[in-house]
Design the sequence.
């Protein structure tokens, strides 16, 4: 029996999670865990890729790493909120390190890595429900 049983409150209605991280192992783990819980998942390796994906696949929520090449999570978060087509979509930021001093970002939730999966799932469900 798995440690991650399916719950009836998972979003079988096709909610799409965009996961943005430059580490393949993180993208793979999130994809496996979220799909097991009934979510659809799309991924991007940096903020620039995430914006391109979001233009085609409108996610219900985004989970982004803070430190990435090309466009980091801080830059992505700011551009996400500046885009009228994306600003209403919840944004979760994650980081193994510290945020830059004085960096005020318009994210909806923050998790320190390694991210505890059950609290993350609860926050995803809460944010999706709040933004319907």
Sequence:
């Amino acid at each position: 029996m798995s440690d991650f049983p399916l719950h009836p409150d998972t979003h079988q209605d096709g909610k799409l999670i965009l996961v943005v991280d430059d580490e393949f192992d993180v993208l793979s783990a999130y994809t496996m865990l979220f799909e097991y819980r009934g979510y659809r998942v799309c991924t991007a390796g940096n903020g620039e890729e995430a914006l391109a994906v979001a233009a085609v696949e409108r996610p219900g929520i985004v989970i982004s790493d803070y430190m990435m090449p090309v466009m980091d999570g801080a830059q992505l978060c700011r551009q996400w909120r500046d885009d009228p087509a994306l600003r209403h979509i919840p944004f979760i930021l994650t980081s193994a390190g510290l945020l830059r001093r004085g960096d005020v970002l318009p994210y909806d939730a923050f998790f320190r890595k390694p991210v505890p999966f059950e609290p993350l799932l609860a926050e995803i469900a809460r944010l999706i429900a709040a933004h319907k």
